[in-house]
Queue: 4 jobs
Job 1
Amino acid sequence: MMTEEQYAKVRAAVLAGEDPFPELMAECRRSAKLLIRTRGLPAHYSLVGVWSEEAIEEAFADWTAVRLVERGQLKAMLQRSPVLNVFRKECETSVRQHLIDRLKRSQSANLYQRVRRLFQQGENFIPVGSGTGTLWRLSDGPTEPANQEEHALLGVAWALGDFEVIRYDPQAKKLSPLLAAGELERFCRGMLAAGAMTAGTIVRAIELRFAIETQHTPAPLDDHAAERGETDPQLTVPNEDLATATLAELTERQRKVLRGKSAEVPVRDLATQLGCSTGTISHELRQIEVILARLGADAPDVLNKVLDELLKEEA
Amino acid sequence: MTSRPPTDATTQSPKAGGVWTFWAPRREDHLVAGILDTSETDIWLVPLLANTEWAADADIALDPDALGYEALAPISSTGWVLLEQAAEPVGMLSEQQLRSLTDAREAFETDRRVPHPAGPAILSDKDPRKDAHHAREDDLRAYFDPWALLHSQNELGPLVKGRREHFGIDLETWADELDVDARTWRAFERGEADPDATIPAKALARALASIDVLVSLRVLELAGESVRKHHQAPEPGAAKARRRRGIRRALRHDPEAAEQAAARYMSALAKELGL
């Protein structure tokens, strides 16, 4: 294990432009493994639906290649981390975010088909042209093509407000889609209100709005595990693990907001208590909802365990 | 009192265009930021964030060639920090990058469109980026608070009063502990007394240590200002005659003498604070 002195030396060298030292990468590997093994990380965060040794190694290798090397995040993490303890926390956050991004990509794999099906089968969608270049518009919407520029698309998409994230269902045999049918339809109709678009443009808007990275094609999920008679690992995950995973993912402020919410403290009072704005409280409440839904931790029994733990911490 | 945490000593001093990390009391992590300007005691900076998720039309994207990774400069969140919060240099902005950030800030301040924004404008109250930006501002506040505190007053006494009351410290007890007359201390806190004449630098340093004020050149500046404002020098001449008549000597404000007294007091306080 790295000492504080070693970390200071390696950090200074890497920030000065040297290649990452093997000791530093070993520390990164250790942090990633600890997160996966001890923080109750659910199996659906793994591309193969289980956290085997191989899956952990694959996740570490992918995180290293994409985040640390390709995007230069190692340097960013070192800059923000004057001491080893902070660096470890940064690693943990980065690995978790990487796994969540992969999860979102997996969930969005069939978006194009879903959008096309919605346009073909839904009411009031009018096609203009044919093939992949077909423009779609609403029967009571604008007929002119919408601005295809990414900033314009993203601006319209953000203005549609929040979208409910689908709760992870451990009984399901495969991952839920990114957006439920009703929410996908709301998104599409909102976009088409700005002008006619192709299904591909809508998918691009979804990718931009939900920060779905498209440059890396993830390995397919092991949808056939259940067919082969294997046990879905999620079915055996005890609520304690989900509570652990939830607590590990919540930031300090989100924990306080969740405690306040459970005690029915009004938003304004909570903001005063935490010394922040009411907008910040609203943001954190949304982030908490997303975390709970993604982990499947919003089930009452799991949520109660999370709240029990938070109350214990407070005491 | 909050002092700078130990970092690798560097001979470089922060200047415009530099990319440095900055520390703040009670924050474990450092903030990476680009320096837009500096003064003798302060630094004007723009945070450079690795999280680009909530980009809008008042944010500028920095290519990886600036920092080695893609970063977001939230132009609406430029702010001042104290010079002592600069921890270490980690890079340098090109002239073009620095210009684009300062131009963007100027545009933002004059309600013009920020050139080449990183994200689209927020068009609706429903847009979740609005609240996300509030959260971002609240996160960054920890870095700007020490500067804001030390610039909330233009002399040291009233600032000390505010901090003492914030911590619920009783004036009489505190003055007693500091071995300073309570009336004298009260006058200093009210901005009515010259600390050089009434409060030993050692006592003031002890007081500052207990009210969580960041050790900085700005503290010296404020102490100096307290002296400059309230320093009274005896009227020149006729002292003997006054003494003979039993009259208290007349005092007057002499800017030159006040400046000398301020310099002397700041130097003594700097020594006590380890600056």
Job 2
Amino acid sequence: MASLIRNPKDFAAGAIFTAAGLAAVLLGRQYSMGTATRMGPAYFPTTLGLVLVLIGFVVLARSFLQRGEPIQGLAVKPMLLIIGATVLFGALLRGAGLLVALGALVMMSAWASRQFRWPVALALAVGLAVFSALVFVRALGLPLPVVGSWLGR
Amino acid sequence: MDLLANLGLGLQAALTRANLFYCAVDLFVGTLVGVLPGRGPVATIAMLLPATFTLAPVPALIMLAGIHYGAQYGGSTTAILVNLPGESSSIVTALDGYQMARQGRAGAALAAAIGSFVAGTVATFVIALAAPPLANVALRFGPAEYFSLMVLGLVASVVLAHGSLLKAIGMIVLGLLLGLIGTDVTTGTPRYTFDIPRLADGVGFVVAAMGMFGLGEIVLNLERVGGTPFLARVTSLWPTREDFRRMIAPILRGTVLGSAVGILPGGGAMLASRSSTCT
């Protein structure tokens, strides 16, 4: 299998394009299509999705024909950690508050680094949390809870 | 000359010691807030608006102008140094400025804001001079003209993309699809929102840019095995004579284009910056 694919980067790109296009078409099926003169909400996304699927197919097909560079070292763990930390921040912000959410964000993303050291990461988390609480909430008055509703208050 | 008299009157009002002081203070505050990633001029003005309530109209306007320009400059700082554009118009700054910073020329990139200053000043004069006739043109800018401008933008992004043409088109289609998230403009149906009220407004430009450039950069840095994360070192803030010489033509081009495109309602700084990088 792996030997058949001559351009792994293009193969991945084609797969992503195809998947995104398919998702757009399938998710768009719940909306009404309309006609070309009175386009419904599904008309434009479905067309775009089909175009994207088509492009994905061509890119996929080309990856079997043309030689290309391999994908080097996909850093899965750090990538998941970074994206997970960002999502976690969003999930924690309302309920647990800025201090907890920022602490979690910094600790988790620092853990993704090869140069991770507990004292540095902890100091950064505390410093950033205090700084953000002072600057964004106290000084600029952004409507963010410093300590969230889950923790009393 | 009506125009010169009016401009003179304006300068007279602006150039008092108190007003200059307000301007300086708010430029400073605006830059300070604008430097924070993800805070553009609009957000900055919105937050600092209450501070102007107690002032007379003239100092209040001067204050807001100061905050706006300060925040704009501050936004370009984060765009250049850490590749995190604060608002839509500095995304272009991030594209080029960050590359300069990687080559150790962060200082020159930051100082290239001189171009913004020249263009801003000239554009102000142009607009004061040509406001009545230009306003007529802008009002006649209908859907067909905006559509052509958008097509031009999309075509230009394909042309400017490095690498595979097909993949560039694919990414544009993908971007268009992302732009469809939110309420459908013609029917009002929420599309691709997964019943999350937040998504009814669509995916913001800044959000998309932060994800693409900011998070993407972090992940890319982590993938480079054994490599050190990139840190920009700001060496000399003053561009070299060579830089100056090479800057003149783009500054003039940007000035002309910016004054022309900036007068269109709705497009603003975003369209102007996008179309002038494309030339």
Job 3
Amino acid sequence: MVPWVWPDRHRSDMFAGPMRLRDQPPGYLLLEDGRIFEGRMAGAEGVALGEVVFNTSLTGYQEILTDPSYAGQIVAMTAPHIGNYGVAPADAESARPHVAGFVVRELSLVHSSWRSQESLSSYLRRNGVVTLSEVDTRALTRHIRSAGAMRAALASAAVSEDSLRQRLAAHPRMEGLDLTGMVSTSQPYEVPPAGEERFLVVAYDFGMKSRSAELLAERCCRVRAVPRDTRFEEILDSGADGLFVSNGPGDPEAVVHALETIRRAAEDGIPVLGICLGHQLVARAFGGTTFKMRYGHRAGNHPVRRLSDGAVEITAQNHGFAVRGGEGVGIDAAPGLRLTHVNLNDGTVEGLEHRELPVFSVQYHPEAAPGPHDSIYLFDRFIEAMAQV
Amino acid sequence: MPRRDDLGSILLIGSGPIVIGQGCEFDYSGTQAVRALREEGYRVVLVNSNPATIMTDPDLAHRTYIEPITAEWVERIIERERPQALLPTMGGQTALNVALDLHDRGVLERWNVELIGADARAIRMAEDREEFAAAMVRIGLNVPTGGFARTVDQALGIVDDIGYPAIIRPSFTLGGSGGGIAYNLEEFRVAVQRGLDLSPVNEVLIDRSVIGWKEYELEMMRDGADNVLVVCSIENVDPMGVHTGDSITVAPAQTLSDVEYQAMRDAAIAIIREIGVEAGGCNIQFAVNPGDGEMLVVEMNPRVSRSSALASKATGFPIARIGAKLAVGYRLDELPNDITRVTPASFEPVLDYVVVKFPRFAFEKFPAADPTLGVQMKAVGEAMAIGRTFKQAWQKGLRGLEIDRGAWVTGDRPQDDGLADDTEETLRAALRRPTADRPFQVKRALEKGCAPAEIHQVTGIDPWFLAQFAELVDAERWFAGLGVQGQGQVEDAAGAGLTGVDAAALRHMKRLGFSDQQLARLRSVTEREVRDLRWELGVRPTYQMVDTCAGEFPAATPYLYSAYESESEAPPSDARKVLILGSGPNRIGQGIEFDYCCVQAALALRADGFETIMVNSNPETVSTDFDISDRLYFEPLTLEDVIEIVAREQPEGVIVQLGGQTPLKLAKPLADLGVPILGTSVDAIDRAEDRDRFVDLCRSIGAAVPPNGVATSVEQAVRVAAKVGYPALVRPSYVLGGRAMEIVYDEASLRSYFERAVRASPDHPVLIDRFLEDAFEADVDAVCDGENVVIAGVMQHIEDAGVHSGDSACVLPPYLLKDEEVDEMRRLTRRFATELGVIGLINVQFAIRDGLVYVLEVNPRASRTVPFVAKATGIAFARAAARVMVGRSLADVGLDLETDPSPVGVAMKEAVFPFEKFNVDVILGPEMRSTGEVMGLDESFGMAYAKAQVSAGASLPTSGTVVVTVNNNDKATVTPIVRRLHELGFTIRATGGTARYLRARGVPAEPIFKVGEGRPDIADGIISGEVQLLINTPLGKKSQYDDYTMRRTAIAYRIPYCTTMSAASAAADAVIALTHRRREVRSLQERFGSDTARAGESGTASTSFPS
């Protein structure tokens, strides 16, 4: 009656690993303000330190784990079951996980998907991600919502609270932190176009998600990812048709790279597309300012209005800092810029463009991965902008 | 795009009676839609033939028509009301079909009515499978290949290409009615022929079989500016092959990666745009090959649906409400998210909990029906549960189902789980065939140590779900063995009590969703012992909010579920509060009527300043709409779940008498725990239910009861029956809907019955009453404040005694009873109410024979007829009852103590049966089998009956041929009825004996063969369209086979049939009315002269329904 047979590998490792939740060793998450959340250790051994944030995406844990923008952060997932469909190499956004730690309500003990190559628990252990399961992530989320994102430490119950508190106190805050050095490529690398090359896009890699490069490559761009400190001249010399400024972790105020390049490239008529950290840097390059949000946006369901026609895009979000808006469609302290997209939940700046130069950027993630594809058109707009030059 | 100002008046079509595939979810969506449109200042005209609905409450719409939902009758409403627009997407398939029919007949054009929400082109493209398949191909999506056939030969050509198993679906039928799966040529031919016959356009779709594929649904919304979003994803635990309505489903989807989910979302967005749903919701179903991820589009419904109701309850996103607003021009981003109130509706809800929905079946009512689940829906209701994890929700959902199992507990005997014996072969074979027992068979298999992988292979259930189940079974073993010598076997726990069970162990099990009852069973102790220990150790549930956003934003609406987390939300207030217990999943005998009563109570008490708290587990209902009560607990209605809420909320009292048997069963255990029960006392309920005390009660007030007795064993039953006399009516005590109620004619049938009845209800004795043949039956509903009584209505049954009151047509006022008989029933009802000290509602059932009034039953609680009576008289008795329960007097709540209310005109109730879905006989009996009801309202008896019949799906003819075949007892009675039909111009045909009898009395009747006597027979006549009405009474148990075929054929060809003499007589009256009287429609507001609600004014609805 069932016309297909489940592959053997699933049969054999379906119940491999610690079958019983109650057998997992206890652990806890200690917050900077003293609040403790108990759970059970489910990933790698060790202590994790970072800023604790929550993400409300229902799917896409692997993309989130491997998104370099999460460097320095302990990510709590609000969806209760994580790991259900295992891990598929194709879904990784970079070579390895970047989160500082991982917190879930329940880590799946099995994985079920034809795409899966490995269980998430095995993946987390193999990649050294300290993980706490069986946590009341809703209480944690509500706490972060009211108290704000803050530093936290995650460890096994064998680690005493005192020692953990000391380590936590010594850990730096997110404000003022340039974390792009942890995740930016050290050497330039290229992603070949899928088809005949139309454009060369130089991408500032501050921790670029691979999906962004893929979407450009699919649009016949050769993507040359360069280290964060690459100088403008080098980019100009490479014959770039467009400049892509990637997402990345940390406080944009602390990132000193690329600002001049963004400005000069734009002035030279080279179209610029910025995403997330890239968007914040674009704003800053033209005088804009950024601020740390109370608990940021990390989700796959935020409504964003496109001001050009009023349409609503459902967007993927991952940011703890934002560009300060101004009067009307203005951007604070950046008279050259204009607001193009706004978050309908809280009115924050989600997109902007230069009033004269071929520069535009968005705070959210049009490349999705994970998240809805409503905004992929922005990559087409970037292509059009390069075509018009 | 704000609200459209060019529309003033909008017509909304409801879905009619509750049938399998179209339940009370459309009352929920319709009610939301009416409220949403009213709120915007539109004048709302509503038509629905179902009186049990909340939407037909005369306070809700401006004009409420309880009239047949057919193009002919709806056109009359359009002609009178002249609406500018028709919203067809809120009333299920019924409303869509009628809207299309109105469009095709040019009615909408003639009266200049615009279809809003979805236009005729979009509806047709979504509904017509050929057009739909073509549309999918245009946007590059795949459908299960196959094709359409209008003949068996065409179908055979298609199946040659695609092979078996093949799926056969008739076009344009309700709930997949008439569909089937064929595994071989023979089955295929039968299924195709049946499908062609059932399809109104004589067309079937032959699909590629995707049995065993993963099944998903996405609930979508789109506004007029082309903004599209997914409200909810739903994954079926039962893979493709089982109708979604019969499947256990989970929200959100659990086993799709983001890559796969987004591909599905992209496809869904492309589909809603291509089909062109302009403004509103739709649901799209997908099949995914678990081996390679291939995704096929199965179907799309351009309207709200059962799944959208589920999605609304699962997410807190009110799809119908938002859909109605989109239909009148709003954009999603102009509307607020009603839960957070600060963020807009243009977002996609995210869940930090898991929702599981279980179907509720009624196979016990239809022992002859095939219990295999397939593409044709068979469930009659559903229970939903919310848990922090799938495991928790799974267990809560199963205990919310109320199937006498406690929860996910296997039966003591293999037979209890639908297995012939306890062998692995039997189990494996059973698992291959999806039935209502399968969840329990899966558990048995796991308990036996079957590998989940193996269970996956035979069931197709995703390994992830099976792993969750395995964890639960593993935990049970662990818990049973805690502190016990010999570890690990359930039996070992005997005698150990709760030794070794500590707070951590209890918390661990509670987090996995186990109930106290389950834990008690595992340790061979009582539920109370577990509860006492649990309370002592402080292991108590926490309550979390359904907030649409997984905690990202604060929520303003207290819509709650229980869990065992670290903290509770939405702390209780110190307001005066009343807890109302709902009725749980719909089933035969307990349905929407009770939800109506609960909602009325919530609205009334809320208006009076109480904080109202609703507890219910049925996602289809209005009562579980999060803004009907001040607080909603979406929880199973078990003692444990309810007592925890009571302990948290500390209400002034709990209302148990409005939700049917479900809350009533909890009354005593709650009272024993010190919970104040509002209204009629628990002791009074017991006096009416306990047979001995009931007989004493009747004696004390001088009411006659049929001779009766009680038996707890077969031998005792035989002795009692001999004393009482045959025929006897036998039934277990404490049942609703005539469960296991039968008429036995002799000792042999009594003996055979008794064993089954005892099995049906082991804890209660069997009641034996003398059955009063040829008596009239009547129902009286009344409300009492402990001193005074107002009789709401006296309803006479159309069918003779012996047909369950829920299955019998009934009429208000009585049409064949003498005044003194009616007065006697009123008098007795008053006596019962005051004697019992009823505070709230009471229903008394009577039988009248030879001028004597007998009392059959006294029910000091809401009855099934409360909403019917309210619609017939215009008085909201349920609201009055709720108010007297909190201490007000009848006079104080505005009821006239001097004169009992009388109905306006004639109100007829007719029952609707699921005989199309179940291949069983249609003869009515004491066991209730109807799923829903309709109401016919008119000035004349005949027209009221005619309207009720049309609404119930049986259009009575005004010309043609009547076939008569009745048993000897009925020949004299049927003669004048047939004579009237002959005078009206009908051709009369009758079988041998009946024809001779009629001819001998001057009624020319041509002979026709019974089935089996020769050809062409009656069935052939029905098939070739030569029969327009069938009058048939059964010949008795033994010789029914031919009758059975004939009646089944009548059902299949939708030929109206009468199986009792009183129904035949009423049908004759109806035919006369249809022939001679004008067919008119009138709104309730006009009938009651309560024309208070007008467009643009804040009518009564805004005061009684929260906005």
Job 4
Amino acid sequence: MAAEVLSTSSLVAVENPARPRRAFRLTNLLPRIGFAIYLLALMLPIYWLINMSLRSNEEITSSLAFWPHHPSLQKYFFIFNDPTWVHAFMVSLTYVAINTVISVTVALPAAYAFNRYHFIGDKYLFFWLLSNLMAPAAVYAMPFFNLYYAIGLFDTIWAVALAHCLFNVPVAVWILEGFVAGVPREIDEMAAIDGYSFPRFFIRIFIPLIANGVGVTAFFCFMFSWVEQLLATTLTATDALPFAAVMTRSYSVAGMDWSLLAAAGVLTMIPGALVIWFVRNHIAKGFALGRV
Amino acid sequence: MALHPINHVWEQGRAYALLGPSGCGKTTLLNIISGLIFPSQGRVLFDGKDVTQLPTEQRNIAQVFQFPVIYDTMTVGENLAFPLKNRRMERAAIKARVAEIADLLDLTNDLSRRARALTVEAKQKVSLGRGLVRADVAAMLFDEPLTVIDPALKWHLRSKLKAVHRALDLLMIYVTHDQVEALTFADEVVVMKDGRVLQVASPAQLFERPEHTFVGYFIGSPGMNLIAAKVSDHVAHVSGHDIELGARYPKIKNGDAVIGFRPDFASLAPEGGIPVQVRRIEDLGRRRLARVALGPHEIFANVPEGVSIGGGTAGLSIQQDRLFVYVDDELVLGDRR
Amino acid sequence: MEKPLNNRAWLMVAPVLVLVLFSALLPMMTVVNYSVQDSLGQNQFFWNGDAWFRDLLNPSTEIGARFSDALLRNLSFSLVTLALEVPLGIAIALCLPRGGWAVGPLLVLIALPMLIPWNVIGTMWQIFSRADIGLFGAALTGLGLHYNVTQNAISAWCTIVVIDVWHWTPLIILLTYAGLRAIPDAYYQAARIDAASRWATFINIELPKLQKVLVIAILLRFMQTFMIYTEPFVVTGGGPGSATTFLSIDLVKIALGQVDLGPAAAMSLVYNLITLTICWIFFTIMTQLDRRRYA
């Protein structure tokens, strides 16, 4: 009995066609309102920071205002024109970049190994990595200083880049391992059957599949290294002075230079914002399961 | 992904395969039917009802994907019951239906195991089961479901699919790039390439009368021999030899055409027919396949039983009613009067 | 489902091991060294055995009491902030669009709080929370609340909690969002075919697939809140009284300006061990739960 069940007539399809629209219901509106409230709450202190950076110290400490009475970019000019600040900024950017690249690169094979294979001591090693994040920095600063001085790397960007591996590498391994876990093992097997060598499979097939993880890991490594101050200042003196050390110049005998600190704070957001902008497509990458 | 206009009626109880190389648009077509994407033009009708703008959950379809898609946290039984629970079926009815489908798929012993702990093949069966468990499913869609199955076990799942098909009389649409899968599974095969449907026919018809050079080439192992030739009336000129076509082809521009014939319908003999150079003869067990050359053209042909080809030359004869002429890749019908 | 035993996998892990060991081992040894010694000043040390540790863990000694108070403060702080941040972070991540032009700017906005150096955050909130010159403080007192960071312990506590939630919820959001996007479309398609509600999709597909990402997010956040230092130090100085004197602040107070680093070293080791233990317990529970799923 032939009954017409399905008829596709004159179909033409285009790329990225529209997905079904969700029905307009209150239950869809509430999350959006909540989201908007969150964003607002998020931006308030940031707006306050920008506000502070445009006001004078006297104004900050004396009155409450939504907008500076005499907005002035004076502190920003000060920072841009001060070679110490600029140099410090570049130094920080450099060691953070180096550290991010190293951390993500060594973490990728390790994360794969931890998830796909079982080897002696794997569970303990995995956990031990994380335990390095629990080192209370204040008490560890001195021993670090001694170590890097002894091997002659004191006051170089490499010292900070390497020292930051202490916490960034474990973070990278842990985050990436979670994403490796999300890729079905069958893909590995299929690639082997299709004749891919392991390095080729790993680089051309596997890493794109964990793009979300790589993007978010790169950003977090960048961020954690960027904001770390104790080790960065302990291990450097003049050549590799990071901006964290220069910022302490805002605390002087004359009192706190609030607006200078605020201006520095605003400027420090920019590199990280650029990083996450660059990895945004990796983080947001979606997957349609398909034969590779 | 751009698809060319397609007009097709898919009938209840039949199994269709969408066959073609990657990028040919078969998955796109499947996704339009399933509701994952919307076409910019055209309509999809289920039993006369226009579902083109309806989202997936409002169409009566079920789908099995390339990778087993199961709910990790549930047991096999809970997985199978899930679609029915969401549709608020009675518990007793759910239990009965789950048992029925589990029995059909040989999953009865695994019902209380965690779905995540099963083998890949079993997981695909669970995926399949979730689709079958709903009695109102109009069409079952398969998107290359055997991709991750161990080659040695593919036959088992394939026969399971056929058994299910026979038992439940469902419309099944099966996307694959593997012609063996398509030809063994389907009642009708839709061959696609570059967003176009080249031919819709039964496996036998596809084999015996390909309407497009790609269909001829893609199906069969090895595929059709396709040779550029100059056709004048009822003769094709290839490398200085004349091949009798058995029909008249008066309207071919410049005579430029491609003639096609399957190795199965071409045979070699020590002499007689078109003279060719013998390159190699392979004994494949149930048949002997010869690789010969006619001028610069490489041709595959059968060596019939009992015939032995000695030297480097032989004679090729082609069955006239299986010799086709293609112009611009499309089959041209000749006048057989 | 069993992972193949492959000891050559150590090769893939070796670079990580070398890098981290290099930074971890020597300093750790130094701290251990200090913790079992006492000093008469001028760099002369003598063995003190486990005396520092026994003092520390005895609540009746001065240092013991301080330690247990601070410990309690830290634990409750971690619990409260986690309870706030994790659900909020997941909820916001679910609201983020899955693609389109808005994703980039939204990700940037959300990431901003984490990019500000912690001392700047503390300093900024110092002003922000003042009732006379800060928006936050003024708004709260304007609403009639008795809000005073320097004098009111509850205000101080709540402020530190708010700062932490503001500062670090983005971590949870970004990790969760990345984890969500990594779920293949087919799962959502299957959920729609199965007529699953949004909640059912969340519970049965999204949450299980987010498990690993959430574990690392929670562990990271727990460690950070348990070891929090800069923000409370800058905003409240540990006060009023000792209301916000967390363990790390206490630790630095003890370590600075003292001749014998023994108590401080012992304290930091015990502190470290407690953090380790809690994380280990959580980690083991999660892996056991995972293993049981395979049964």
